[in-house]
Design brief:
Length: 819
């Protein structure tokens, strides 16, 4: 090991050794890699990896030929041989060896170091993995007497070793292919190697159907679809519309996954089946998820589990309806399989698939299918709402996420419906375009503007989800941030599809251009702020549009707080579509300059074609659920309690013309001792308007009797959280800002009082404060105060806190006259 001790100096100074000394050093390290001592082996392999990467192509022997003994490909072979030796050793052990499995993981991590530096070695590595896996499976199969899987599958130490090895290998391949999707494309050669490994595992007698379905999802995983979108954009129809070529592969892989799911359900082991369904949903394999969750509904006894599985089934069914739309040419094979296996009618569900789609999204079939999808998602939310009884308030993340998905798809349906209205109103001859038709077109253009603004707001709701659920895993945050970007992109395309300069003049109307200019500034700012995090080039490309719309003027919202943590396959398809959309808009913009009455209709038709294509491609982008969706424990949130009189805790009442003074208690809920953050300060925004009147409920005003409170259903959630964030930011700079009270006008007849309050939580998670509402001008009646809250942790990070109860109710009564 003396030579190993000087290796760190050699790594920094590759010319320190001559050729002979270098050759001797390599031999010494390779011999150390065969040592029976684990630490010595791992150190030797680390040295080999780092030397091979640093000296490959640089270190030459006297003959002028590169040293073949230390090429990265040679090191890959040595490491894979060591993994095979460890696996063979497991076969002879009486029990599982945790240290051995840990060593395999560390060796696989070393392999990742090599191929990340030498990307041309990925195919070689995957080929070696397939060969090594086949060798190991053959050794273990020979050790078993029985060859029957699933029914007579015997759980013993040998099986346990096989399963552990298979999942270690699965994790490595999944990470590898995910990295490939981030850096380069998934080539046919790489896909074939992954497919070979999957087939080897699924055909082996070693593994259960649960293992097989997990592996099958590697082929069906939508990262392959996302990576191939970039290639398919180069293949266009005559009208320049990208033509997708991946449907046949996806259909074949979908059927393969369904076959594995069917075998798994036949075994009757519900927990592995549920885990497989969860995995399928997280990979966007909605056909398999629908089959599994639908089968499990009748297998549970608990009411809460029944609600949960029923909701999952409705969710998966909704997404499956959309996937049917993506298989117009190759979907017949999948439909035949489903009909053959009686899957379509096993839950009394009718699915109709048209095998002769023309590809036009303005056909009624798309709007109808999206309407069905919306209803399924709505049903899924309602099922969970029935299960979310106080005081637990369960499934908050799930209900909010499903509600957002339903709102987005409902908005997409409205876009299609509006496109149909425009299509029916357009005449090829502008002279035949009557006043009624002109009004319909103008109304439709305005409707697109409203829909784009709605989508822009929904993108910020995804940001709120990312900052509300404390402790969310990184992968789930990536999915949430990608969905926010996806929503922002569709908002941009919808708002910019019908870019007609001087639209008001063209249609002889007023007050159109000013609104659309402000709207487009908001849309550009939203999308640019997100793209800047992941694709600076496209962000700069988008900035060219500021020459048209001008910079944002007094935009009320703050820059998005959503962050995409890596440029993996979650955003690859979205970014590709984004580049396509921006380039198409710039092209359309040049055509629409100087538009007059004669060319106006052509601009409208171009906008319709553009938006139709975008929506079609947008639907094609894979949708997968974040892992956090299956974390069903109650989320961290808070409840607000208010009083004016300690003797009447349940009743708040003041005479007409008086101010309302409130004693407040903000109580953190569902906090755990091992919580990842330590909350140091909490903040609240309370607001009330004269239009916030309600009926008094049983004389109790504090809102505790409300069964299920869903703060995300309030239309002002984004605006109020932005105000709260602004307050927290300003109060941290200036203490005089604390306790600020303001009045804003929601409409001409209503003045909304806004009060900001700060709390310092104690060891029980309780914070106390007070505030004063100027409601002296409010008429007699009963009013509900609305509220939102947030917190700052010990690291200075900002989090939103989900309100778990409705705000306090107070009554203004007429002051009795004396005498």
């Amino acid at each position: 090991m003396d030579k190993l001790q000087i290796i760190f100096y050699v790594r920094r100074n590759p010319s320190f050794l001559d050729a002979n000394e270098y050759s001797n050093l390599v031999k010494a390290v390779e011999n150390a890699a065969r040592s029976p001592v684990k630490l010595k082996r791992l150190l030797a392999f680390q040295v080999l990896v780092h030397l091979s990467l640093q000296l490959s192509g640089k270190m030459e022997v006297e003959s002028g030929v590169c040293s073949l003994s230390l090429l990265p490909s040679r090191v890959i072979s040595l490491i894979m041989d060591q993994i095979a030796s460890l696996a063979k050793m497991f076969l002879d052990l009486p029990q599982s060896n945790s240290e051995g499995f840990q060593e395999i993981k560390e060796l696989l991590n070393l392999l990742l170091l090599i191929v990340r530096e030498q990307s041309d070695l990925w195919i070689l590595l995957l080929e070696k993995i397939c060969l090594t896996a086949a060798l190991i499976m053959k050794m273990h199969e020979d050790a078993f007497d029985g060859q029957q899987r699933d029914v007579d599958f015997e759980v013993n130490e040998k099986n346990d070793i096989s399963l552990r090895f298979s999942f270690i290998l699965y994790g490595f391949v999944a990470i590898s292919v995910g990295y490939l999707g981030q850096v380069i494309s998934i080539t046919p050669e790489i896909f074939d190697k992954v497919k070979l490994l999957v087939n080897s595992v699924c055909q082996s007698c070693l593994f259960s159907s649960h293992t097989c379905i997990i592996y099958s999802l590697l082929l069906n995983c939508k990262f392959i679809l996302s990576c191939r979108i970039a290639e398919d954009f180069r293949i266009c129809n005559n009208n320049g519309f990208p033509h997708f070529t991946f449907c046949e592969d996806l259909t074949e892989n979908e059927i393969f996954t369904l076959e594995c799911a069917k075998k798994l359900l036949r075994v009757g082991d519900e927990w592995p089946a549920y885990m497989a369904g969860r995995h399928a949903a997280c990979h966007g394999s909605w056909f398999a998820a629908t089959l599994i969750f639908g089968h499990l509904i009748s297998k549970v006894r608990s009411d809460i589990f029944h609600y949960w599985l029923k909701s999952l089934f409705q969710f998966a069914l909704a997404e499956r309806k959309i996937q049917f739309l993506l298989l117009p040419h190759y979907g017949s094979g999948l439909t035949i399989w489903l009909e053959k296996e009686a899957i379509l009618n096993m839950f009394h569900i009718q699915e109709h698939i048209n095998h002769h789609y023309t590809g036009s999204i303005t056909e009624g079939i798309y709007y109808g299918k999206l309407s069905e999808t919306y209803q399924c998602l709505f049903s899924s939310v309602e099922v969970l709402k029935a299960a979310a009884v106080p005081p637990v308030q369960s499934f908050c993340f799930q209900r909010w996420f499903l509600s957002l998905r339903a709102k987005i798809l409902g908005t997409v349906g409205s876009i299609l419906k509006t496109l149909l209205n425009v299509l029916c109103s357009i005449s090829t001859d502008y002279g035949k375009l009557g006043t009624n038709n002109t009004g319909i077109i103008l109304e439709s253009v305005n409707e697109f503007s409203k829909l784009s603004l709605k989508l822009e707001r929904l993108s910020h709701e995804f940001d709120l989800i990312g900052t509300t659920f404390i402790g969310m895993d990184t992968k789930s945050l990536n999915v949430i941030s990608a969905l926010a970007l996806n929503c922002s992109l569709l908002a941009f395309c919808t708002g910019f599809a019908f870019h007609v300069p001087d639209l008001a003049t063209t249609l002889m109307t007023e007050n159109v251009d000013d609104f659309r200019t402000k709207l487009r500034a908001i849309l550009i700012q939203n999308l640019t702020s997100r793209l800047r995090l992941v694709d600076d080039e496209t962000s700069k490309m988008l900035a060219q549009l500021f020459e048209v719309t001008g910079p944002p003027n007094n935009c009320s919202h703050l820059v998005s707080r959503g962050k995409i943590l890596d440029l993996g396959y979650e955003v690859r398809g979205i970014l590709t579509l984004c580049r396509y959309a921006i380039s198409e808009f710039i092209r359309m913009q040049s055509k629409s300059s100087g538009v007059d009455k004669e060319t106006f209709l052509q601009v409208i038709e171009d906008g319709m074609q553009f938006l139709s294509n975008i929506v079609m491609l947008w639907i094609s982008i894979p949708f997968r659920v974040p892992k956090r969706f299956f974390f069903v424990r109650p989320c961290i949130g808070c409840e607000l309690f208010a009083t004016t009189d300690v003797h009447k805790l349940d009743e708040i009442s003041i005479p007409y013309g008086f101010h309302l003074s409130l004693n407040l208690c903000l109580q953190l809920k569902n906090i755990t001792p091992n919580m990842s953050v330590q909350i140091t300060k909490m903040y609240c925004i309370l607001y009330c308007g004269s239009s916030f009147q309600e009926l008094k409920h049983n004389g109790k005003n504090n809102g505790k009797n409300h069964q299920v409170y869903e703060a995300w259903e309030n239309d002002d959630i984004v605006e109020m959280h932005n105000k709260l964030l602004h307050y927290v930011t300003e109060s941290s700079k200036n203490e005089a800002y604390i306790g600020k009270c303001s009045t804003s006008g929601v409409c001409k007849t209503d003045r909304v009082i806004e009060v900001f309050v700060q709390f310092e939580p104690d060891e029980k998670g309780q914070g106390f404060s007070n505030c004063l509402f100027d409601v002296s001008h409010y008429p007699v009646g009963c009013y509900r105060i609305k509220w939102y809250s947030c917190c700052v942790d010990s690291e200075g990070c900002f989090w939103n806190l989900l309100p778990l109860n409705s705000g306090p109710l107070f009554t203004i009564h007429q002051l009795c006259s004396a005498g």
